């Protein structure tokens, strides 16, 4: 019965982690550019009591054997980078990537981070920055006297200056993508950093070479589907209850054995 106790305990721990991930998904259902996560599980090692193919006579052998599994463990928590819904804001500094790609932002320590959150602002120097004040990389600076800002699908940023009939180009927004975006490290604040698993960033122009295009005045919502997460939550809860019942049942069986009298 001890084996059953430990096996069921691994199931409870696994489903607790699953519920933690689901809770984080639901907590960020309204977070701009948020990407949901999914837990992948795998079974643990097996205790082999009788090997498959064990001879039972000179002419016969065991066809299946006896293996007892020892539980489950989390194998990975994977980010799902599917496109979220897009909604219009009318703000000229709000950008959405329609397709593949990430914005680049420069952190205070000089590290380049990546984000799908296109809700940019202007800082005191006129630079386009994130909500935490991290500037776009390469930097885009908007002149203080600019009357309007236009950002094309290919990332070209132009402004209308007073007294001029032709728009003035002030920079180009570049995108990056990764061979394995699921390998990116989440550091919070809607930011990711590259790792050995993600591969090196591939820099490109929006709308070319497989990169998505930019749309001005729009934002991307979270790709979390509430109904899907609720179903997963119910499934995780029931699985947790079943494993807890297995622990209780194993304990009751041990109690019966301990109380046996001759």
From TrEMBL:
Domain of life: Bacteria
Ranges for domain Flagellar basal-body/hook protein C-terminal: 215-260
This protein's record includes keyword Metal-binding: no
GO biological process, one term: bacterial-type flagellum-dependent swarming motility
Domain Flagellar basal body rod protein N-terminal: 7-35
Main location, first listed in the record: other
SUPFAM superfamilies attached to this UniProt entry: Flagellar hook protein flgE
Residue ranges of domain Flagellar hook protein FlgE/F/G-like D1 in the record: 97-159
Subcellular location: Bacterial flagellum basal body
Recorded GO CC terms: bacterial-type flagellum basal body, distal rod
UniProt keyword annotation of Repeat present: no
Keywords: Bacterial flagellum, Cell projection, Cilium, Flagellum
Annotated family: Belongs to the flagella basal body rod proteins family.
Subunit structure as annotated in this protein's UniProt entry: The basal body constitutes a major portion of the flagellar organelle and consists of four rings (L,P,S, and M) mounted on a central rod. The rod consists of about 26 subunits of FlgG in the distal portion, and FlgB, FlgC and FlgF are thought to build up the proximal portion of the rod with about 6 subunits each.
Entry protein name: Flagellar basal-body rod protein FlgG
Species of provenance: Candidatus Caldatribacterium saccharofermentans
Gene name, Swiss-Prot/TrEMBL: flgG
